[in-house]
Amino acid sequence: MRTYETNSITLEEVRDNVWEIPRTGDMNTPARVLASESLLEEISGDRTLQQLKNTTELPGIAKYAVCMPDGHQGYGFPVGGVAGIDAETGCLSPGAVGYDINCGVRMMRTNLTYEDLKGSEPELVETLFESVPCGLGGGGVLEKDRETVEEILADGVEWALNAGYAVEEDLRRCEDEGRRTDADPDAVSQEAKDRGKSQIGSLGSGNHFLEVQRVTDVFDSEIGDTYGLKPEQIVVLIHTGSRGLGHQVCTDYLDAIEQSHSELLESLPDTELAAAPAGSELAASYYAAMCAAINFAWVNRQVVMHRTREVFEEVFGRSWENMEMELLYDVAHNSAKLESHDIDGEKRELYVHRKGSTRAFPAGREEVPETYRSVGQPVLIPGSMGAGSYVLCGGEAAMTETFGSTAHGAGRVMSRTQAKQEFWGGDVQQELQDQQHVYVKADSGATVAEEAPDVYKDVDEVVAVSEALGIGDPIARTFPVCNIKG
């Protein structure tokens, strides 16, 4: 058996691309890292492995904690981490969901081709930047009162449909049809609601973006047809989350857990893993508030998509319906969800925490939209501005290997501080345009530097590991044309 040692942690190779930290000491389960050797080298460069090991000490954790091939250090719980925790004897951990609740990504397809768009890139990127709010703080496409925010928290994309920002098909092609029914606006603080009311329809900052892309490759024509994808087609990828509202929900409940469940907190190896015991009043309240923030994030992405449709109408002089600007799918990256999974031959109800990982359910699961149920759930894997992105299909092995999950992107290999020291935003922007015909517009040069292509792992290798393990099968590859960032 081959081993890999780093920072006092020993991993044993279970099989190709699967490395295990054996259960020792206070660990309740082993931990597994899904990665090639080169990706494992990058993952081991920060505290990811220690955070993953710490995660196994959460009460009620089942089977093993998992780190995806795009994993990197996060707040307590690693980004790229997945943990299934018993819904009766376990806990709910805000740190294992993250501050940006339902940070996620949606893809909208069109009937435009790359040839149709050529020459319009400068106008398109400028108009999108002027029309879709982005950057730290700031407002959104909509500014509503607190009562409207409460409706959004309760109803999700159904609110957007009733308000004229969505069509029925948008709901049917969104995870959970764009609404978590367990949401309770009363579990969300007034401060969180006030932070959210001016940010509906906004990208925010950091790695969030709106990217116009062209489909460069379709690897599976049958499933590609089902997803409505073909070579040289123009698609749009939108990546944002619950903004200040979700951040405040996480903050509020981490503070409440510190006050109410200090004994559990003190038993954990890292206070950033703060958790509320399953069945407790605080766990129920957090779950209801988290579901409400998830609904808010879905509406946020829906409104950004609505505005994007309007921009395309302005630039190309045709209705969005004529351009067939239809939602392909929307997936959440940061969430906890009550799901039934087979553990040692027994069906168990688990809170599946996914932080920087994507649900990847295979064909036949009732949670997959009917239009895709015969082939499996679409999975969207954004890459960097210089490397492109992937559309995958949920793989059968995901249900036994990863609680029905796979990676959520390329994953960082360089901190934002280091990136700003090594790259100049203007140079990155110019090189992308001159060498790869990618037009980028951002709130600042520093943002472009932080998101330079070289700060990310190799998305091709991340996807190759997913494919090799059968947890997500590549269907299509896309490449940027225009990108706006906060």
Structure report:
Strand 5 (65-72) and strand 6 (79-86) form a beta hairpin. The chain is built from 17 helices and 20 strands. The protein is α+β, with helices and mostly antiparallel strands. The chain has helices spanning 37-43, 48-55, 114-117, 121-131, 146-155, 157-163, 168-172, 190-196, 221-227, 243-260, 262-267, 281-316, 398-401, 416-422, 425-436, 445-450, 459-469, and strands at residues 3-6, 9-15, 18-21, 31-34, 65-72, 79-86, 91-92, 104-113, 209-218, 233-240, 276-277, 326-332, 334-343, 346-355, 357-359, 378-381, 389-394, 405-407, 439-442, 472-485. The protein has a domain at 3-96. Helix 4 (121-131) crosses helix 12 (281-316) and helix 8 (190-196) packs antiparallel against helix 10 (243-260). The strands form four sheets. The protein has an eight-stranded mixed β-sheet, sandwiched between helices. Strands 8, 9, 10, 12, 16, 17, 19 and 20 form an eight-stranded mixed β-sheet that branches. It has a two-stranded antiparallel sheet with strand order 7-11. Essential for tRNA splicing and maturation. Acts by directly joining spliced tRNA halves to mature-sized tRNAs. Joins RNA with 2',3'-cyclic-phosphate or 3'-phosphate ends to RNA with 5'-hydroxy ends.
Short synopsis of the structure:
It is built from 17 helices and 20 strands.
Task: Provide key terms for this protein.
8-stranded mixed β-sheet; single chain; globular; alpha+beta; 34% helix; 486 residues
